[in-house]
Amino acid sequence: MKATQTSRRSSGMTLLELTVVILVLLSLITMLFIGARSWKQGSDRAGCIMLLRKGQQAVRGYQNTHALLDGTPIDVNTDLIGPGKLLEAAPRCPGGGTYAYGSAIPMPGTMLMTCSLSGSNDHATDATADW
Hints:
The chain is mainly α and 131 residues long. It has helices at residues 15-65, 76-79, and strands spanning 99-101, 113-115. It is rod-shaped.
């Protein structure tokens, strides 16, 4: 009689298979964190641009309400910001930047506010002609 050989294979994973699974999971987690960081930066940029536009609309509203010409001196902290004024509170950049204000009503297409992150993270837009 011939002896039959029976091969027994364990039902678990080999060390190599386990290593590959862990590497794939780590790669997916890394991509998730990179995507979340990019999403956060894009969201901060969009929020900052919205605040810049809101400040620009506030100065235009103030200019129209008081019949002022471009170039008229303005104190943003007393004329625009405060309870009952066009901006209830001083805007704060979602990305952690700070805003600098001009001292006069700007010409159309020129910004009243600028963000300190405008050079590094693109917290400004070039399409301001209609603001």
